[in-house]
Each structure stands twice: as structure tokens, then as C-alpha cells.
Design brief:
The structure is a homodimer of 338-residue chains. By secondary structure, chain A is an alpha/beta fold. Chain A contains nine helices and 16 strands. The longest helix of chain A has 14 residues.
């Protein structure tokens, strides 16, 4: 269309563990003409998520793996540049699974959401006011069911989901404990995200420090990591505890399944629950969550941090950086002005 | 009282793993006179439970450990021999935590239940119509929430809880798969307890056989064992599966916590739940469960098997025998005629 060139980040080779820059390549193709019913979206922000590791893996997961040679699957936020569907106006701001590319030719049903909160930065539509915020909201409130005065522990507490979980738990009257890596992120948890306590899992005395701040026991553990961090938290569960399995960021490979301390006795003695979830199963929950999240942001109750890299050439190496913990806050790639 | 001699099985030394006969001793004391408000129960059946291992352990559990020198804690069924409480008539048949002994001096609030189903054998009050049946009923129906057509897998399927779980699941229209040890118990699962399939976990091809009968996936796993049996079942969970943690019979010691394949990825990808419970938390559920269970027994839908040893001298070695799998069905010690 109008000689537009579409830069696309495609999967060149399948990663065996954490996806690296050289698993991808950037190619260019012309944007085709729209046919009846199609909509052309100009992507402005590309999202980078820990979950992308799973989307690229052929090991059992909740979605089909991105095919070799395919455009990398990703949430994006952008603007409707042209439309041959009367229901989708040119100029609308939208999010969807539009991939790591400049332009996406889609149909109306591909659009996840028309963004109505234009008083807030567009980038929030991919983070705190996007799938990360909704994930935190659903997992904590629907599965965790926090009650005032309970203690909530969150792993990857300085991350886009974890920081949101901590702040929502605080809004619900809970005591919040964040687990994160390094002193910078630990300070961020305390100073920006208002955790009552924060513990650095990389510190030599991690288990002792965790035991100190968990002396009253843990009622809810929102788990984004699995691994030794979770093993340590599990020993502090209170009776009736809820463990929300949202991600497994600390495990480099699930093939073969790594060993860890068995959880059955904790679950039995503490009458505790572990529950996994995938937010895409719960679209009926999105609108209510967007409403809450937008209100909390506007009222100053929900702080967020973004790590925005400019230029599509940053995309291929962006997942590996996440797993190294390079970023502070939600990682995004800006590929155009909004 | 009237020169009655009370034989009692007392804890002589604390077991480090599975309780053995020489951890106990049998002593004799006279039965004291009743004072106002007391009730004297003549125990007829003593119960033997896998959970007794935990009741004897000082490692974190859901009840205080039996003290050294104390009478072994146990459910019993017996008859009120004398009463100085007008609310408890002489001759009533009762159950309670009256211990491994001939006689128990108790108060009305110690009585767990007055047995009303005297058309059924007294022994059932400690098994299928007692805590085992109620445990199966609560765990399967309240936590498992079985739906018609779902597949339910049970470990220790020929045991007193497991056999009851399988039959209740069948009554609810589920396909039932039992896991048990040895060909005799496997046949029992199929022939007496009506499982649709039964697999011997001691057989060399256990994992392959399990995979065959679980080809359609597992919706509910009622887990009485933990360990390698559970590890094998976890790989077959269906989306939305519920794993009910009722016991950990296959684990000889939890100190230190043994290693096993991590469960987080199964729970996440399958949106599955693991939930531990202890039946003593749910007394409000008992009466409804007794009603259902008695009706199903009378209608011939709920078969049960008992392993009754006669004489209190069998009690000390009875727990070790359970863990060796010596028994077929609910193990009881009869110490008097009813």
C-alpha cells in the first residue's frame, strides 16, 4: 500500500532455552493493498514478555509455537492507518497480537481492544493498563482472594506484573513482601512500589532475610519464577495459603523437568492451594480490570516503570535481556511516534 | 471402676520414619471411678490409619504429636458402659478419638458421633461410614467437583479411602482409574470396586500402562501417595485438572524434604490446581456425608473391604503393616464383642 515497507522480526532458528538475538532476523516486505473488511495498523510499541520463551518452544505450552520463518508473536499498540471495515475508524488506537513488525493487516476481530484512556501514555496499554496489569489483577484478586491484613509475597516484584500485584495487594489492605534481584530493584520495590519489605534473592543471606520478613507466615504467594525462590517461600505458608502460579521465569528449560523439593506435604499440612492460570482464558474479566487499573493510575495508587528501547533493531535481543534482568520495568520497543 | 483393668498401647519411643511395633508397649492400669459429667466407653474396634505416622512425628503436621508415654491416638468405635451425664445414655454406640485402649473415660464433647446406622456393621463406623468415607466424600466432591464424563485417577485405589473415592466418582458418572500395588489389589479394584481400569504401580511397565489408560487425560487426581506415582499422573493432566492432596503414603520421611520433578509448569500450562485438605477442618460436612454413604451402602453402590485383626496385641505392629501394604481393605483391631 502506497509503497509502504514493512520491517518484520522473523524467527530464524528455534531456541533450545532462552531466545537469543541470533534466533531472529529482520526482513522487509512491501505492505499489500487492503481488501474489503481489512484494517491496516501502524504499530507504535512492541511488547517484550517473559512468556515469549514459551511461545517459541515446542515443549507443551498453552499456545502453538511461532513457526520457523514466522513473524514473532507479540502484543503491540498502534494506530489504524487505513480501514476497509466501517466498524473500525481510521485514527483509532488499538492493541492486539500484531507481531514484531511495522504494519499489520488485520480484521476487526483481531483487535484486542480500542484504547479509550488517551489521557494516559499509549505505552501503558501494553503494561500496567494492558495484559500485565490485567494478569496481576486477575491472578491476585480472583485466585488469591486477598483479605485485609493478610501477607502477600510476590516474586519478580519489580517487574511489570509483580509491581502491579504488590500495589493492588496494598490497596486491598495486605502486608506486601517483594522478592527481586539486586539492590537497585530492591530499593525500587520499597521506594516506588510501596512494598512493606523487599528481599534480594541474589544475596547470600536470602533465605534468612526471607524468614525474618515472613515470620508471621505467608497467606498468598504470587509466583512468577518457580525454582529456589519459590522453594524458600513454600516453607513459610500459613494455613489456607493460596499459591498463584503465573510464570516460571527462573527455570531455563523444562525438558527434562528439573527437580525441586516436593510440595505435597506443605499443601497437605497447610491446607494450601497451588493454582496455575493463563490470562487469555479470562477475557470476560478484562473490562473490569481495565476500569480498576485506569482509576488507580489516575489516583496515583498504581505506579509503573517502563524500559523503552527505540528502534525495531532492539527487538531480537530483547527477550534474552529480560531473562538476564537488564531491564527496570516493563520492556517495550518503540518503532514509531504516537 | 468395678475392678476393670484397662489395657493401653502407649508410645515407648518416637519413630524416625514408619512406626514399628517396638515403638509401642502395652501396659495395664485400673479404670478409675467416674465423676459427675463423665462417660465410660468400652472400645470394640480400634482404627489403624496411614495418618498415624504423622500423628507420631514432631515434624510440622496438622496436630500435636502423641507425647512419649502417651496412649496412642486413634479413632475407636464402642459402647457406653456407664454414664454420669444424662445426655449420654448407657448402651449408646459411639465413635471418638478414644485411643488404643480397652476403656476410655470421656466427656460428652469428646464423642464424635452417636452411631445411628445399627443395621450396618459397627466396624463401618471407622471406615466406609467413618472418617475414611467422609474423607473420600469431601475431597472428591468438594475439592474435585467431578462432572459427568470426566476421568478420575485415584492412588491407593484398593485402600479404604481410595476404594470409596473410585466408587463415588463412578456414581457421579466419571470414568475411574485406580492405581494400586500388586495383581491381587489390581483385580480387587476392577472386580470389587468397579474401576474402569486399574494399574499396578509395582509393575515394570507402570508408566506405559498408565499412559495407555490415561490417553484421554486426567481431570481429577485424588492423591494419597505423592512420590513417583504422582509424578507419573501429573504428566497426563487435562486442562483445568484438580489434584486433591489427601495423603503422602509413598514418602517415608519428609525431613529433609525429598526431591521430585517440579510441578509448576504442569499447573501453569494446564491451568490446574493442587489443593491439600484435612478432613477434621470440615465437621459441618460430616452429617451430609454420613447420610450419602449409608444410603449408597444400603443400595449396594458402595462396596468395602476390611482387614480385622483380633486382639489388642496386634495394634503395635499394625501401622508398619499398612505401609508394607499387608492389608486388603480398612485395617481395624477388634478388642471386644459388639
Amino acid at each position: 500500500m502506497n509503497n509502504l515497507i514493512n520491517r518484520q522480526v522473523r524467527l530464524r532458528s528455534r531456541p533450545s532455552a532462552i531466545p537469543q538475538a541470533d534466533n531472529f532476523e529482520i526482513t522487509e516486505v512491501p505492505v499489500p493493498e487492503l481488501v474489503e473488511g481489512q484494517v491496516l495498523v501502524r504499530n507504535v510499541f512492541l511488547s517484550v514478555e517473559p512468556a515469549m520463551r514459551g511461545w517459541l518452544s515446542t515443549v507443551g505450552n498453552y499456545s502453538e509455537p511461532v513457526p520457523l520463518g514466522g513473524v514473532m508473536r507479540s502484543f503491540t499498540a498502534g494506530r489504524v492507518l487505513a480501514s476497509r471495515d466501517p466498524a473500525v475508524p481510521v485514527g483509532a488506537w488499538v492493541t492486539g497480537m500484531f507481531g514484531w513488525q511495522d504494519y499489520a493487516l488485520v480484521v476487526a476481530s483481531d483487535i484486542q481492544r480500542q484504547i479509550v484512556e488517551r489521557d494516559l501514555p499509549l505505552s501503558t496499554a501494553l503494561g500496567v493498563l494492558g495484559i500485565n496489569g490485567v494478569t496481576a489483577h486477575y491472578g491476585l484478586l480472583q485466585i488469591g482472594r486477598p483479605r485485609e491484613g493478610e501477607t502477600v509475597v510476590v516474586s519478580t516484584a519489580a517487574g511489570s506484573v509483580g509491581s502491579c500485584v504488590g500495589q493492588i495487594a496494598k490497596l486491598k489492605g495486605c502486608r506486601t513482601i517483594g522478592i527481586t534481584g539486586g539492590e537497585t530493584k530492591r530499593r525500587l520495590c520499597l521506594d516506588q512500589f510501596g512494598f512493606d519489605a523487599a528481599v534480594d534473592y541474589k544475596a547470600a543471606d536470602f533465605e534468612n532475610r526471607l524468614a525474618e520478613v515472613c515470620a508471621g507466615g505467608v497467606d498468598i504467594y504470587y509466583d512468577n519464577t518457580a525454582g529456589p525462590i519459590s522453594d524458600a517461600v513454600m516453607t513459610h505458608l500459613n494455613r489456607g495459603a493460596r499459591v498463584i502460579i503465573c510464570g516460571t521465569a527462573s527455570i531455563a528449560s523444562w525438558d527434562p523437568i528439573p527437580l525441586g523439593p516436593r510440595v505435597e506435604r506443605h499443601l497437605l499440612v497447610k491446607r494450601a492451594q497451588m493454582q496455575g492460570f493463563v490470562i487469555f482464558d479470562h477475557p470476560e474479566h478484562y473490562e473490569g480490570a481495565y476500569r480498576d487499573l485506569a482509576q488507580w493510575i489516575r489516583e496515583g495508587h498504581l505506579s509503573y516503570l517502563e524500559d523503552i528501547q527505540v528502534g525495531i533493531e532492539h527487538a531480537p535481543g530483547a527477550i534474552a535481556g529480560l531473562y538476564r534482568g537488564d531491564n527496570l520495568g516493563k520492556r517495550l520497543i518503540r518503532i514509531a511516534e504516537d
